[in-house]
Design a protein that fits this description.
This protein is of the alpha+beta class. About 35% of the residues lie in helices and about 35% in strands.
Length: about 250
């Protein structure tokens, strides 16, 4: 069985011939509720080490609020300017005492569920470091340009002028996650809000707007959605790359 040491080492097996801008990689795990504080503490200790401080990106420890059929309770999300930078840093981690200690702690407390990496395509709205709740919607499409055009059209509609969050469209090029009926995801939408209240109020408003209905009809012909999950940031380490910088 794979161990959580893949958090830092498995990505070294990915092809190095692909070059992505604004890469974000996800390592999902299942953690007992009683162990959640210890997992957060182990990550904090690692990030305070020399190798943790040398990370040229950002780390989010996310807790799953609603995950559907996924068994993941948490996810380590790594933000980097590109995949090559991520691979270079991750190669140093297992060679350090702090990296080995963190890996041993995760092996004892966390069960790997899935891992995948994404490249950002476009962002709409206003990126904010205050956004702590994120909707994650995975889908499959063979026409990403049509998806991009549909999202552009929606965001340009006057009804979207007061949108309080940010929307990101990313390609899941490596580690495509299985979805409905054994299909796999090719892309993912991420929508960030400062609070559940902000998210809920916007959703209630959006459902009354004709432009939203037109958008859903258009998307139904070009994309197969795999469901939406809600996650929240349990811890954020962004001294080298915060969310606003990453999404610009």
């Amino acid at each position: 069985m794979k161990t959580i040491t893949t958090f830092f080492s498995l990505a070294l097996m990915l092809t190095s011939s692909m070059s992505f801008a604004s890469t974000w990689s996800v390592y999902e795990v299942q953690v007992k509720q009683s162990d959640a504080p210890a997992v957060a503490a182990a990550l904090d200790k690692f990030m305070q080490s020399d190798v943790g401080k040398s990370m040229p990106g950002g780390v989010h420890l996310n807790a799953t609020v609603f995950g559907g059929t996924s068994q993941a309770t948490h996810a380590f999300v790594l933000l980097f300017p590109d995949l090559a930078t991520q691979m270079s840093w991750q190669a140093t981690v297992p060679t350090t005492e702090a990296g080995q200690e963190f890996g041993a702690a995760m092996e004892a407390m966390a069960v790997p569920v899935a891992n995948w990496t994404n490249s950002m395509i476009k962002v709409w709205g206003t990126p904010s470091n205050k956004d702590r709740f994120h909707q994650v919607t995975r889908f499959y499409t063979t026409d990403p340009l049509a998806v991009l055009a549909a999202q552009d059209k929606l965001m340009a509609d006057p009804s979207m002028a007061a949108f309080p969050g940010q929307v990101g469209l990313s390609q899941t090029a490596i580690g495509n996650r299985l979805g409905a009926n054994g299909a796999y995801t090719s892309h993912v939408f991420t929508v960030g809000f400062e609070s559940v209240e902000e998210m809920e109020n916007w959703g209630n408003y959006l459902n009354t707007q004709p432009a939203w209905g037109e958008y859903l009809q258009a998307m139904s012909t070009i994309a197969t959605f795999m469901g939406t999950e809600l996650v929240t940031n349990a811890a954020v380490y962004d001294a080298k790359m915060d969310l606003e910088t990453f999404l610009k």
